[in-house]
Specification:
It is a single chain. The chain is mainly alpha-helical. Helices cover 74% and strands 6% of the residues. It contains two helices and two strands; from the N terminus they run αββα. Strand 1 and strand 2 form a beta hairpin. Helix 1 runs antiparallel to helix 2. It starts with a helix and ends with a helix.
């Protein structure tokens, strides 16, 4: 279960990064910046979830060997 969650997390991080680059940024006529900012915190959240899952798998493997 943890292995699947790890892979899904990193895939979502990649999708968020690629989507952010594809959508791009632009400046509206009134001078406001229009960008898909919501993708940045979502990517960071899933990156931390993926790292956490890797740490959990590592600790579990060390406990099983003991």
């Amino acid at each position: 279960m943890i292995k699947i969650l790890t892979w899904i997390s990193f895939i979502i991080v990649a999708i968020c990064g690629i989507t952010y680059q594809i959508i791009g940024q632009e400046i509206a006529p009134d001078g406001t910046l229009i960008e898909p900012f919501f993708l940045i915190p979502i990517a960071w959240l899933f990156l931390f979830i993926g790292i956490f899952c890797i740490v959990v798998r590592y600790v579990r493997s060390k406990i099983k060997k003991s």
